[in-house]
Write a structure and sequence with these properties.
α4 runs parallel beside α7, α5 (99-116) packs antiparallel against α9 and α8 packs antiparallel against α9 (191-205). The protein has 210 residues and is an all-alpha fold. Helix content is 65%, strand content 0%.
């Protein structure tokens, strides 16, 4: 979990990073934004802070991002990709046989990301803020729930009906809120709130039909 993923899904970047060097520059700017948010929160983040932290000029920041909201949007997109990569890997490695197992892996994955990705506790995948994520396809917590369902279907051929899908998406929203509280003032996370996230995850899938 040490390396941040590059932005490979649609992001609000003014100039798309085509060459590897440009992609590295964009990710360095996002790294700087994440490190700053880890210290002061997303509310205080400015493009000037991103420039100073990354060692780039303010012009370089504006070359890729028109304003601080665009920076936040891009961080949220990259955070989502980070979660999805980790979740798919963890689901593939675990012995997931039912929805209960899948929810356990999902909570554990989110805990792992909260604890290892700087700035994640402040912004997560953008659902906690009105930053208008790109509307193409599923975004935020809905994308996390979908990835979990797809992995479960591939491994166990378990398909959820519409009510089940809504239940899982709602569960991920609640889990996100609990873990946000768990890591609000703790680098390692509050164990009581993490345990509550697991409890809620299991309670939410009881009775869900497939």
């Amino acid at each position: 979990m040490e390396n941040q993923p590059t932005v490979t899904i649609p992001a609000p970047i003014r100039v798309a990073p085509v060459q590897a060097r440009s992609t590295a520059r964009v990710n360095a700017l996002l790294d700087a934004a994440c490190e700053t948010m880890h210290e002061v929160g997303y509310e205080q983040l400015t493009t000037a802070m991103v420039a100073e932290r990354s060692g780039a000029s303010i012009g370089t920041v504006y070359r890729y991002f028109p304003d601080r909201i665009a920076v936040l949007q891009a961080v949220a997109v990259r955070n989502l990709e980070h979660v999805l990569v980790a979740l798919r890997e963890n689901m593939a490695q675990a012995s997931v046989g039912n929805l209960s197992d899948a929810m356990t892996v999902t909570v554990d994955t989110l805990v792992e990301v909260f604890a290892s990705v700087k700035g994640f506790r402040s912004l997560r995948v953008g659902d906690v803020l009105d930053i208008r994520p790109i509307p193409s396809g599923r975004q935020g917590n809905a994308a996390i729930a979908e990835a979990m369902r797809e992995a479960l279907q591939a491994r166990s051929n378990l398909r959820l009906d519409s009510a089940g899908r809504l239940g899982v998406e709602s569960a991920v929203d609640v889990i996100d809120a609990l873990l946000g509280r768990a890591f609000l003032h703790s680098e390692r996370g509050d164990n009581t709130l993490i345990a509550e996230a697991h409890r809620v995850a299991q309670a939410s899938v009881q009775g869900i039909s497939s």
